[in-house]
Amino acid sequence: MSHPAPGGIDWAAVRAEFPILGREVHGKPLVYLDSANTSQKPRAVIEAVDTFLTRHNANVSRAVHALGSEATEAYENARRRLATFLGVRAEELVLCSGTTFALNLVAFSWALPRLKPGEAIVLTRMEHHANIVPWQLVAERTGARIKVAELTPEGELDLEGLWRLLTPEVKLLAFAHVSNVLGTVNPVREICREAARRGITTVVDGSQAVPHRPVDISALGCDFYAFTGHKLCGPTGTGGLWGRRELLAGMPPFLGGGEMIREVRFEGSTFNDPPYRFEAGTPNIAGHVGLGVAADWLQNLGMANVEAREQALLAQATAALSAIPGLRIFGTAREKAAVISFAIEGTHAHDLATLLDLEGIAVRSGQHCAHPLLQWFGVSATCRASLAFYNTEAEIEAFAAALHKVRGLLL
Ligand code: PMP
Question: Could you tell me which CATH class the domain 47-300 is placed in?
Fold first, then answer.
């Protein structure tokens, strides 16, 4: 099966930029279908981290010596590159270890001091645990309640139901841009507009969106947007939180330490401006340098090209998997990213994933950090194949053939 190359891009050459994709697993060529878990890294990112550590390594903003200023400049340059990639101002971009940190920062720094007993937070059924548990911790401490927006059987948000939940006691709505299990792409702009009309603050978990489609955060109308760098071709332990300047400015620090202060006295300290107020301690400098290069690299490739390529691969994979007897796909939203969660009647997800691994095929199995969603579907685990632009049509054919084979072994 072949597809026209979106944007006239030579995808084989793009793939060749990812050294790990050339390796073998259990004597078979690696077919990496776990990019929603973490993406692979192009040579440019690996080399940027290597060059930083080889030539420029020093701490940021603490040394006047040459390496100190080179490291600071490289780190701040990464912030600017990411801000350009995401359509925001660098001063509003807090760099941190990823979405989990970013969402906890909003929970503890924005929500904890504000929420009162009887007020409410709205989440959705499709959230990752990182967008559930921080709000539960805050709800416990404040006496606020959590309300849950439900889904249609296809795995789309029931928008009418969501609007009905947005009652006057709701102060915050936190939801995924794209579901990591279902691939559902939520209508962020419409949801944020409805929330804003009611004075509700919005927090968007963009972990699975920014790696797979063009995202201009400033056009979405949200108040906070979290993302993680390791799914975006960057190193682990990187990512960020964008927040509206006036909201960030009104938030107390989350963690205390070096870099986030203006002045420290034993009687009390004063704090730096955002984003530095939220970046206590030594950050992942080399990692963010790599992430800045990843953002540039993806921008050059063109996120619209990435999206078109992945949509073509998704269509091929969906058709191939649908032809497997007893295979059920979870999540069939009209607008869907390249994630396919599935189960095969009479088999266990972990057994499937283990046998696929022996064929060189890496898929994730389990609950995908989304217990409430899997409970709702009435299953204890699924397999998840998640695609990226560096996958190929031949890999999807190999995946489908392997699934036929392992199904035969298990039944
Ligand atoms: N939200 C979603 C939708 C995710 O897919 C993930 C990663 N699986 C996270 C949050 C957490 O990201 P991280 O572990 O990088 O903080």
Answer: alpha beta
